[in-house]
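Question (not urgent): is this output format expected?
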Amino acid sequence: MPKAPTTLAALRTLVAAWNPPDRRTCAGVPTGIPAIDAALGGGLPGGQVTEFVVAPGSGGQLAFVQLLETTRAARQRVALIDASNTFAPEAVAADPLRHLVWARCRQAEEAFKVADVWVRDGNYAAVVLDLRDAPVAALNRIPKTTWHRLHRISERQPAAVLVLSRYGVVPAVHWRLALHSRLTLSDQRRPRFELVAALQAEALRGTAAEELAG
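Got this back:
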């Protein structure tokens, strides 16, 4: 099971205890999901912020678990910043969790502080900021300067930064994908590889200048 630091100080201690970061440029992080990797030209782009808009039942949890399995097979680390403390590791097989580091947060503002540390760290193939269950009011209070800082930090590091949301919240995002699958309880009886292959995603370009101006 992944370790979950309970304070920002503990998080910094954990980061400092690891090896120096690998600063090589990351061309992309394959998710193992055909529709998503095809839309993004091979995978999540390194040094950029990508947003997945995930409605309930559209395959968001399946997509995240597949990302864990794909990066695990490639021996890459993934960091999960759980903005609402809703991630349930017991629902995921043990092996994909071996390269996951997980931070439980009580509110969106705290999640961005953790993101600042982990994106800068440089040891992760992907840093996932999960805002799906964050209150809408809290997301609306996030200033554009906070998002701008996340963009700028990401550009100086190799990691792919992925934001999961219920609706488009990231201004000036490089890529925004909407997952359109509709999974039902009966789908749980299907082999997982079939569900992954059936995931549908629509990719939309972010218009950075217009969104920042707005």
